[in-house]
């Protein structure tokens, strides 16, 4: 498979129309059609279901779309890493980050770094620790900001200074909103929204103790903003970290006994860093 053809495939998948994609790619429609047919023959599968007005990806096509995007992203990232200008540090740094207060420290480091190197750009990928690690392993990210528990055995890492406190996000009209803290007993009969990460659920199970088996799990989530929307709509109360977010109609209550988690900034061990990433590593060490 050639990257050029994968880019053609992604354009067609995006537009769902070969004529429109051909115009965007500055190709004739027959030329683009031949490239797609050749790709299907090379892979031995059908990638599209064709109709008169548009095309739809098959299951195999949807799988290739994901893989092709990853390959194209990696190729583009590699090309950017080799972009060098004399006496000027430029390039892109890709960082995956979970939802944590340590993002404030990282944001401040990015701001001060760009004051010195304004031609450097940052690409932030927001996701939970499992998704960030996957993209790190694929080479799509330079660093990852992971909330614990996280398996960091195969990474170099530095531990962030601030720890995050766990609590529950409830509506202001919930009976729980009158409390200062919440206990496992307080939450036993409340529909709950939990992180989908197995490691986090194990930590929560330890906190709940023997009440864990009797909880009402209404939904799982990976990012708190969608969970906050579900809380607002009455789906349940969301267990998560105190990110110091302001919601007029919601209230965050700390857990009692208190539950805290740390954060680590990780990168691949023994990898050769690009000049821009190496410079940011050194900068991070000197941020007050």
Q: Gyration radius, to the nearest Å?
A: 23 Å
| CA(first)-CA(last) distance | 48 Å
Number of helices: 10
Helix content: 40-55%
CATH superfamily of the largest domain: Periplasmic binding protein-like II
Any guess at the CATH architecture of the largest domain? 3-Layer(aba) Sandwich
Describe the structure in brief.
The chain is of the alpha/beta class and 288 residues long. It has helices spanning 3-15, 18-25, 29-43, 59-81, 102-116, 129-137, 184-187, 198-208, 224-232, 275-285, and strands at 48-50, 55-57, 91-97, 120-126, 143-147, 155-159, 164-171, 191-195, 216-221, 237-241, 250-254, 260-261, 263-268. It has 3 domains: 3-81, Orthogonal Bundle (Arc Repressor Mutant, subunit A), CATH 1.10.10; 91-162 and 263-285, D-Maltodextrin-Binding Protein, domain 2 (3-Layer(aba) Sandwich), CATH 3.40.190; 165-259, Periplasmic binding protein-like II (D-Maltodextrin-Binding Protein, domain 2, 3-Layer(aba) Sandwich), CATH 3.40.190.10.
Describe the overall structure.
The chain has three domains: 3-81, Winged helix-like DNA-binding domain superfamily/Winged helix DNA-binding domain (Arc Repressor Mutant, subunit A), CATH 1.10.10.10; 91-162 and 263-285, Periplasmic binding protein-like II (D-Maltodextrin-Binding Protein, domain 2), CATH 3.40.190; 165-259, D-Maltodextrin-Binding Protein, domain 2 (3-Layer(aba) Sandwich). The strands form three sheets. Strands 7, 8, 9, 10, 11 and 12 form a six-stranded mixed sheet that branches. The protein has a five-stranded mixed sheet with strand order 4-3-5-13-6, sandwiched between helices. It has a two-stranded antiparallel ribbon with strand order 1-2. 41% of the residues lie in helices and 23% in strands. With 288 residues, the protein is of the alpha/beta class. The longest helix has 23 residues, at 59-81. The termini are far apart. It has helices spanning 3-15, 18-25, 29-43, 59-81, 102-116, 129-137, 184-187, 198-208, 224-232, 275-285; strands spanning 48-50, 55-57, 91-97, 120-126, 143-147, 155-159, 164-171, 191-195, 216-221, 237-241, 250-254, 260-261, 263-268. The protein contains ten helices and 13 strands. The radius of gyration is 23 Å and the shape is globular.
